Amino acid sequence: MILPSIKTYGEYKSDNYGCHCLVVTIPRESLPDIRVWFSYETPIAFMEDGNIVCRENDWGPTTGKHMRWIGVDKQNRVSAGEFCRRFENMLNGHPVALIRQLQQANKIRC
Questions:
Q1: pTM value?
Q2: Structural domain count of the chain
Q3: DSSP element (H, E) containing 69
């Protein structure tokens, strides 16, 4: 069994803030890994066909900073509606029990 990894990303100087920007990677044999970037409890980017899909910033400067750390230019970010549609399609194509359980518990907001 290959276990998922949860790591911080970005440039926070203190570990107190690192948990606000996490990337979850779920490795899969013979298929591309599933990777989702979070700002707090909200998914803001994910890997799709080898490319990072990042949504527009509908929140504020802190989430904007997290998005800059992921490395997707503003002009290449997608609308909230398109992001949620593509994120749902990605999840529906893969049995990701942890992410599904968090969504159902309303701990992850799309």
A1: 0.76
A2: 1
A3: helix 61-70
